[in-house]
Amino acid sequence: MEIGKPLISKSPSQDFDADEGAVETQVKKWIQEFVIGFNLCPFARKEFDQDNIRFKVSDPHSNEDLQAALVCELELLEANTQIETSIVIIRGHLREFPDYCDFIERANSLIFELGLEGIFQIAGFHPEYQFAGTQAAAAENYTNRSPLPLLHILREDSVEHAVESHPNAANIPAKNIERMNEIGAEKLRELFSKFRPL
């Protein structure tokens, strides 16, 4: 699914003052209990259980700071093929979803400028994620909602291999939406509250 431009601008719903360890712990808890727990990504369990995901907490003061951190992370992954994937956890920046969408566009351009197109891609997750054409409170938005803004750097060849090996990869987004709607927005809000960094 594509990054959706929000219909409603949301205000930040929490402070971002937890220490790095607590932030990383909450993101891991979200992956284990929500993403894997609800099977939103059939490929996540293997990488998580095998500790193949690198987590990097970033405290940028500007988009330029975050861009520099992203470049460093991309260069690290390019030089270290044993690192399967990386999640950059953004603390204290891009709290508003429209700003996050703008940065995602810049991040995709950056991959092209660095000559890494076809090698890496970025998946977006945000606390106020909203797909185009949905209401802000819609349950389906929770497929891409996370405790903090995230940049998930994926290797293109790994994504292609995972998709080819899954019998119904094309149906994953639709099934995720169906699953979220079955749970309902009210229950999802309640579940999601425990993943917020303290």
Tell me what you see in this structure.
This protein is of the alpha+beta class. The chain has one domain. The protein contains 7 helices and 4 strands; from the N terminus they run H-H-E-H-E-H-E-E-H-H-H. The protein has helices at residues 20-36, 44-49, 63-79, 97-113, 156-165, 172-183, 185-192; strands spanning 53-58, 85-90, 120-125, 150-155. Strands 1-2-4-3 form a 4-stranded mixed β-sheet, with helices on both faces. The radius of gyration is 16 Å and the shape is globular. The two termini are 30 Å apart. Residues 1-17 have low confidence and may be disordered.
What features would you highlight for this structure?
alpha+beta; four-stranded mixed sheet; 44% helix
Terminus-to-terminus distance? 30 Å
Order of helices and strands: HHEHEHEEHHH
Low-confidence stretches: 1-17
Tell me the fraction of residues in β-strands, as a range: 5-15%
Radius of gyration: 16 Å
User: Average pLDDT value?
Assistant: 89
Q: In which range does the helix fraction lie? A: 40-55%
Helix-strand blueprint:
Layout: H1 20-36, H2 44-49, E1 53-58, H3 63-79, E2 85-90, H4 97-113, E3 120-125, E4 150-155, H5 156-165, H6 172-183, H7 185-192
Parallel strand pairs: 1-2
Antiparallel strand pairs: 2-4, 3-4
Helix pairs in contact: 3-4
Structure, briefly:
The chain is α+β, with helices and mostly antiparallel strands. It has 7 helices and 4 strands; from the N terminus they run ααβαβαββααα.
